[in-house]
Predict the 3D structure of the following.
Amino acid sequence: MIKYIVKRLCISVFVLLGVSLIIYTMIRLMPSDYIDNKYSEQLKMGQMDQEDIDNFKKMYGIDDNSFKGIVGGYFKWIGRLCKGDLGNSFKYEKPVAQVITENMWISFAIAVVATILQFLIAIPLGISSATHQYSIRDYLVTIFTMIGISLPTYFFAAIVIKVFAVNLGWLPPSGLIYPTKNYMDTFAGSLEKFGDIVTHLILPVFVSVILSIGGLMRYTRTNTLEVLGADYIRTARAKGLSESKVIYKHAFRNTMIPLATLLAGILPSLFGGMMITEQVFDIPGIGNIAYKALREGDIPFVMGYNMFLAILTVIGTLFSDIMYSIVDPRVKLGK
């Protein structure tokens, strides 16, 4: 096991280098950069000339977009990364690591709650659908699943805001707190602020759960149907075991084995934020922050953020492989 982990980590270093090179090259080849976006209005109004723009680009190190300039810029970034320095964000004017640390926890809270609810809802529905195959229940679950898979995030979020925030007025449409409220610096004020934050996060969590449970439900249903057709399930039924014991004691345990592979994607999603959802609901999470940085060509932040996600993905994949070998002793990890 130790040899396998060390080997995977060594391979991951080369994978991360390849990912970072591709991302850096794509960002540098974007049609506009941070300086162009920041000073476009001043340039149009004649308050600045092209020489001023070129000087700013040289100061930020993004003046040369030739092959040599991109490669040189990449190796400068790698050199700082090896020293533990992700650089300073152009847009937020802070160290990239600080921006990520300050803004990822609200995204983490949303993702944790959404993931827990996703598993609590999707797995029972998937099992229920499989055990009642071709029934009305199965068809209803399938329709619900297809709706969740098919709807774009921004479209469904807009409908949710229109219905629950605008028409009914039950919940706030965006943000984390009410901007016009003054919260007292007391325990009661902190409690009131926390309650308002929870209220503001109900709709984003609802949208995330509805749009994510579809795939997991279908996955659980398919795995359950495969397990229910196995010989040991027929043997258990032949022994006179109740249907609930057959399903939840024997079938469910083996249904969970393939679900262990889903752990690879959970870790980056927990800390990486939900870019579209956070943008629609104007939540200052790491996903929304990253979207604004990408739109304005903030190279240091985009590189740091994507490397952060890449590292989490590598760790998640490794953790998924280890968990798969634990839940299924027949699987042996290679040395």
Summary: DSSP finds 15 helices and no strands in the chain. Residues 2-82 form one domain. The mean pLDDT is 82. The CA atoms of residues 181 and 193 lie 9 Å apart.
